[in-house]
Design goal:
Blueprint: E1 5-8, E2 19-25, H1 28-41, E3 47-53, H2 59-64, E4 69-74, H3 79-87, E5 95-98, E6 103-105, H4 109-120, E7 126-133, E8 142-143, H5 155-161, E9 170-171, E10 178-181, H6 182-188, H7 201-211, E11 217-227, H8 241-249, H9 253-260, H10 278-295
Parallel strand pairs: 2-3, 2-5, 3-4, 7-8, 7-11
Antiparallel strand pairs: 1-4, 5-10, 6-11, 7-10, 9-11
Length: 297
């Protein structure tokens, strides 16, 4: 596959704290709302980088009028893995923050991440912000329905009330918004393109970090965003990421989340090595065989 990507650099030279990379696919209303929330609710200056997949909905025209945004463009939808990896070369900061275009960041979201990074004092970590979702049973998220679309979003109520929901820091950062030091990103090679267009690329990235010896996976309770939910991913033809992950790592994403990262548990420090029983080994062997059979079908 030949991928031709156009690069447009912004006119802004202001020093930035994070490089926020946002892949988008014909989703201009949500992208615009997301970026507006970054501009008005961030405490610190940031570099914004957008990758535009196709962009035949007016996204490119809108970005041309935004002098503070770097962006790249591919005529076809190359997915998030290629998008993130390509946008990496535009970064001007030490920290790559991956954000979905259907998210709205809350006041102080970035300061909480910055404070956490300063407290850690080294670059060997993986952090995630905490999502609000209209309906969720995910232990990493806060369930609170302020609207599932832009038209129904009760922004004023949300901004008044989002602080009032209790949420501890939690174990097992994986999906966006997530942040990693650029040296760590480069060392593991970014997102793996065998997961294109992107399903299960998040846990794969976490597993690559695990294999390098990183054990600090933390969801930050004070860093909060509202997630409208799958406004782009719900439209694409999904890859067989579940089986690709098993074939690559010999375990399922569920095992990674439960046994390695302890995803959603109250944060208690760096992750420990997972216990391995004969039953779990047998299950993993079965899954590897099943994944190999699925691949050869």
């Amino acid at each position: 596959m030949t991928i031709n990507i156009e690069t447009i650099r912004s006119e802004t030279t202001q020093a930035a704290t994070f490089s926020i990379i946002i892949p988008t696919w014909n989703n201009l209303p949500y992208l615009r709302f997301c970026i507006e929330s970054i501009r008005k609710n961030s405490s610190l200056p940031h570099q914004i980088i957008v990758h535009v997949n196709e962009g035949n909905d007016g996204t490119l025209e809108w970005l041309k009028g935004q002098p503070d945004i770097d962006y790249t463009h591919s005529a076809s939808n190359v997915g998030i893995c290629y998008a993130l990896n390509y946008c990496r070369h535009l970064m001007t900061t030490d920290y790559l923050l991956y954000l979905n275009d259907d998210m709205y960041v809350c006041p102080g979201w970035d300061q909480a991440l910055h404070d956490e990074i300063q407290a850690i004092g080294h670059k060997y970590f993986f952090l995630s912000s905490t999502q609000f979702e209209p309906v969720t049973q995910n232990p990493c998220c806060i369930s609170a329905n302020y609207g599932s679309t832009l038209e129904t979003f009760r922004e004023k109520d949300f901004l008044t009330e989002f602080h009032s929901y209790p949420k501890n820091d939690w174990q097992g950062a994986t999906w966006p918004p997530n942040i990693v030091h650029k040296d760590v990103w480069d060392f593991v090679g970014g997102y793996s393109i065998e997961f294109s267009p992107g399903m299960n690329s998040d846990p794969d990235f976490a597993m690559k970090l695990w294999q390098t010896g990183i054990r600090l996976f933390k969801g930050v309770g004070r860093s909060r965003v509202y997630h409208f939910g799958s406004k782009s991913t719900g439209r694409i033809v999904k890859n067989d990421g579940y089986y690709v992950f098993i074939g690559k790592w010999g375990i399922s994403t569920r095992v990674l989340h439960q046994n390695y990262l302890r995803l959603g548990a109250v944060f208690q420090g760096v992750a420990s090595e997972p216990a391995s029983s004969l039953i779990s080994k047998a299950r993993n062997l079965y899954k590897r065989i099943n994944a190999a059979f699925h691949k050869n079908m």
